[in-house]
Write a structure and sequence with these properties.
This protein is mostly helical and about 100 residues long. The protein has four helices and two strands; from the N terminus they run αβαααβ. One of its GO terms (biological process) is DNA repair.
């Protein structure tokens, strides 16, 4: 009887721990996207399908002129719709008004 009870308690604890892990994962997957206009090569390298040369090309392209839509990245050599979709999972175009306001003293 004690053994059955111990197994049930351990099973319950296991299920609870799985629920905790899944809720932590869900919370982390909703993190805020980064501003593509401020992206670094290192950040872009985390995107599936982006290597060093594509990351450098994106940073160079964005530094020339601030982009207003993510579709503008399609002008970068080697960036197609599939790669753009991967980039959009981590980055977005943030408007000037989405910046936190600075207090003037």
């Amino acid at each position: 009887m004690l053994r059955v009870l111990s197994i049930r308690i351990l099973s319950f604890l296991f299920v609870v721990s799985l629920l905790n892990v899944s809720s932590i994962y869900a919370a982390n997957s909703k993190t805020a996207k980064l501003d593509i206009n401020k992206a670094t090569v290192e950040e872009l390298l985390k995107v599936k399908g982006i290597g060093k040369s594509k990351a450098e090309a994106i940073v160079k392209f964005v530094k020339k002129e601030r982009i207003k839509t993510m579709d503008e990245l399609l002008k970068v050599k080697g960036i197609g719709k599939k790669t753009l979709k991967n980039i959009e999972e981590m980055f977005e175009v943030k408007t000037e008004s989405s910046k936190p306001s600075e207090k003037k003293e």
